[in-house]
Write a structure and sequence with these properties.
Elements (H helix, E strand, L loop, with lengths): L1 H10 L1 H11 L10 H18 L5 H14 L5 E8 L5 E9 L2 E4 L8 E2 L8
Antiparallel strand pairs: 1-2, 1-4, 2-3
C-alpha cells in the first residue's frame, strides 16, 4: 500500500496502472472460494486502517486489485468523479468482483462512473 501510494504520488495514476497490468502477465485467472476472497478483502481493509490512516481510496483499490490479481482473482477497479459545490473535481475509487464491492464503498449517485479498470482484459 505504501509503495502504491508513493508510486501514484511520484509517477502518477496511469504509470502505476500500466505497472499493475504488467504485474499479472504470468498469472492465470482461477476460481477462488467466496471465503478466500472475503478473507483477503478483510485483510486489505484492515491493513488500510493502519497503513493509510485516512483510507486513501485509490491507493486501497489499486493495492487490493494488485494483491487479488497476483492470486489469479479477477477484479474491477471502479472510479467515480463529480464536481463539488465550488466546481472542483472529486474522485472516489473502490474494488469490485462480479458487481459486488470487495474493498471500499461505492460512489454516491452524483458521481459519474469512469470505464472499469480490469487488468485481465
Amino acid at each position: 500500500m505504501l509503495a502504491t501510494r508513493a508510486g501514484i504520488a511520484s509517477l502518477g495514476y496511469e504509470r502505476i496502472r500500466r505497472l499493475l497490468v504488467k504485474s499479472h502477465s504470468r498469472q492465470q485467472v482461477r476460481t477462488a472460494s467466496a471465503d478466500e476472497i472475503e478473507r483477503l478483502a478483510w485483510a486489505l481493509n484492515t491493513a488500510a486502517r493502519y497503513v493509510l490512516g485516512n483510507h486513501d481510496c485509490l491507493t486501497l483499490a489499486m493495492s487490493g486489485q494488485y494483491t487479488l490479481n497476483r492470486r489469479g482473482i479477477e477484479t474491477d477497479l471502479r472510479i467515480g468523479v463529480k464536481r463539488d459545490a465550488a466546481g472542483a473535481l472529486e474522485a472516489h475509487a473502490w474494488l469490485e468482483k462480479s458487481g459486488r464491492i470487495l474493498i471500499g464503498t461505492p460512489a454516491s449517485a452524483e458521481h459519474q462512473l469512469l470505464p472499469v479498470v480490469n487488468v485481465w482484459g
